[in-house]
Amino acid sequence: STLVRSLVKKRVPLQMGRMCYSSVPSTKLFIDGKFVESKSSDWLDIHNPATNEVIGRVPKATQEEMLAAVDSCSQAYKTWSETSVLARQQIFFRYQQLIKDNIKELAKLITLEQGKTLADAEGDVFRGLQVVEHTCSVTSLMLGETLPSLTKDMDTYTYRLPIGVCAGIAPFNFPAMIPLWMFPMGMVCGNTYLLKPSERVPGCAMLLAKLLQDAGAPDGTLNVIHGQHDAVNFICDHPAIKAISFVGSNQAGEYIYERGSKNGKRVQSNMGAKNHGVVMPDANKENTLNQLVGAAFGAAGQRCMALSTAILIGEARDWLPELVERDQPGADVGPLISPQAKERVNSLIQTGVEEGAKVLLDGRDVKVKGYENGNFVGPTIIGNVTTDMTCYKEEIFGPVLVVLEAESLDDAIEIVNSNPYGNGTAIFTTNGAAARKYSHEVDVGQIGVNVPIPVPLPMFSFTGSRGSFRGDTNFYGKQGIQFYTQIKTITSQWKAEDATLKSPAVTMPT
Ligand code: NAD
């Protein structure tokens, strides 16, 4: 809205490291503790998805700027990695408070650039904030192991140590939460961090960087660059960068995993999804239908954990008309990120029509008063879908629910396990045995039982699997600490003077 835009613009020079440039604010780089204007001649426009107005510009950072950012990380690493863990923890205690104090401001930036509703944008910040709060447990999370008296006077102990400069490459759909999955965990472990936010939604990440500086993070511990392929290749290739965290599409994620790994880096890559909601006939109908609709259409379906596919089993097949009726006029569904995304979603709906499915609720012609140029697609439900159809095989990433039918739970499990993605799934049932069977037999990383979007809280880890993940250790939780640390094992022997070896020992000790 105009209010949001004017508020944001007013605060820009003070808070976000932006300044006015050819009538729209330009996004700065954050290098060595300073918000600097890029010297790049190559800039991308940032649009408000609700209107398609250009609301800002973001640079494709030059090689020189990217090198300066990594050098800054490398320099800062020397002192940051030796800073006491308690001092690092204190910075993140202050950071979580500053995020809370600025949650409305962060949410406005998300709504402006990404399009999700303000309430949903606050949720985006809140879920990232929970990860920051969890990083404050670093003093327990980073504990090593010890075993005394392995032989006489000999003890072994391990340290978890940082690995160096780490980098994060983020997607557009969670401008706060996903960057906050990355640098706080990496930095609290003693690493320094190079962040490349999505070029479509850089504003929120810049404010997050400013707040971290205000919390006391020393210059160079976090650097932020912008760009697309060149910036990504730079991160994959620069020898000082030891680990890459990526979240986004399969096309980018598989490429980054391969290129980064080939260069000897650790890579964790969270990618696309097709999440199934399996509805048993014994489920609580009212609850289930409401949950399905919320999880399919919330955030306009632009969530990697959106429940984009329903499988109705047995008599639950009769619930389809009621599912369609759940759509309420005036539902709080924001626009898609771009006109191209809208075009793609509409054409995927059309493939359903052409391949024999039935569009039971059609959001393609939706018009939002006052926002006629926005990238809106209304909630859409496609019935009669089979697994060979394009609208089933592709990740749609829009407010579209495709509905399949199955005779039995076994048939549903077969469908889910034949799909290449393994991000999330949910079963709706009042039968514990069915829930247990489903949870144990589906090959999917995150399973909800009567929970439509089972994203684990940060004391656990985000455990997508199969086609939705590449790497060995997942994001946040214990797995996140493991990703951002390496182990050193020390075996020491302190003998009393009279126990000195009398001669050299050349055989393996047993
Ligand atoms: P995207 O892959 O287009 O962009 C992600 C990042 O990669 C951006 O920073 C972008 O600059 C860069 N990039 C884009 N294309 C690239 C290419 N060809 N080569 C190298 N780098 C490239 O993803 P997006 O559209 O921003 O995000 C949506 C996707 O992210 C969906 O597929 C969604 O399922 C997925 N996602 C997954 C998770 C998860 O945890 N599994 C979470 C959120 C989003």
UniProtKB/TrEMBL annotation:
Keywords: NAD, Oxidoreductase
EC number assigned by the record: 1.2.1.27
Sequence ranges assigned to domain Aldehyde dehydrogenase in this UniProt record: 35-490
Catalytic activities: (R)-2-methyl-3-oxopropanoate + NAD(+) + CoA + H2O = propanoyl-CoA + hydrogencarbonate + NADH + H(+); (S)-2-methyl-3-oxopropanoate + NAD(+) + CoA + H2O = propanoyl-CoA + hydrogencarbonate + NADH + H(+); 2-methyl-3-oxopropanoate + NAD(+) + CoA + H2O = propanoyl-CoA + hydrogencarbonate + NADH + H(+); 3-oxopropanoate + NAD(+) + CoA + H2O = hydrogencarbonate + acetyl-CoA + NADH + H(+)
One Gene Ontology term of the molecular function aspect: methylmalonate-semialdehyde dehydrogenase (acylating, NAD) activity
Family, as annotated: Belongs to the aldehyde dehydrogenase family.
Function summary: Malonate and methylmalonate semialdehyde dehydrogenase involved in the catabolism of valine, thymine, and compounds catabolized by way of beta-alanine, including uracil and cytidine.
Protein name according to UniProt: Methylmalonate-semialdehyde/malonate-semialdehyde dehydrogenase [acylating], mitochondrial
UniProt organism field: Danionella cerebrum
